[in-house]
Amino acid sequence: CSSDLVETGEVACLMGRNGAGKTTLLKALMSVLSKTGKVFLRGEDVTDVRTSRLNHLGMFWVPQEEAVFPGFTVREHLRLAFGEAGYREGLEKAASLFPVLGERLEQEAQTLSGGERKMLGIGMAFALAPTVVLMDEPTEGVAPVTVEKLLPAIRTLAETSAVLLVEQNVDTAVALGSRGYVLEHGDIVESGVVAEMHAQGVLERRLSL
Description:
- It is a single chain.
- By secondary structure, the chain is of the alpha/beta class.
- It is 44% helix and 18% strand.
- The protein has helices at 22-29, 51-57, 74-97, 99-103, 114-128, 144-158, 170-176, 194-199, 202-207; strands at 11-16, 40-41, 44-45, 59-62, 132-136, 162-166, 179-184, 187-193.
- Strand 7 and strand 8 form a beta hairpin.
- The longest helix is centred in the middle third of the chain and has 24 residues, at 74-97.
- The protein is globular.
- It starts with 10 loop residues before the first strand and ends with a helix.
């Protein structure tokens, strides 16, 4: 994920119609799918680096599917993410972003609400302090009251990380994003400042909103 695409301290929004290739791009960046071209992280070529190694190098993926392990509690998810040595510090950081996580430690993560599962993923990303966070539609299907909690948390995350955010909601993209990219058939066809693209009607034209 090159510095040309997203840099530390900003949220870059990746937009496009359904099927444009947004999630596919994130999976390719994380080596979940094969790819052509090159991927760079802090100037280092990581094109052929495995997903586990990318995590170690500072790339973290928050998937759209709210991936959790069946039968595992919130506490167990946090222990897996941070290890025994880093668990307490990780918990404190995650709970500072979303206090509800501290209240749900013994609850199976699979039984959390959709919004709370999103919080768990974002909270773990925040506590791990990655260089780059790839985030896939964190507000999709989430109640407006929860979205109001997610947005400031994503801004806080972007203070220390580069956040590449797939987001279909233009209002959310404008509220969060600095740079924006529009994908069509896997290619970037528009790029620029999100607010300016919106004001000029680019997003409306490209996304048929």
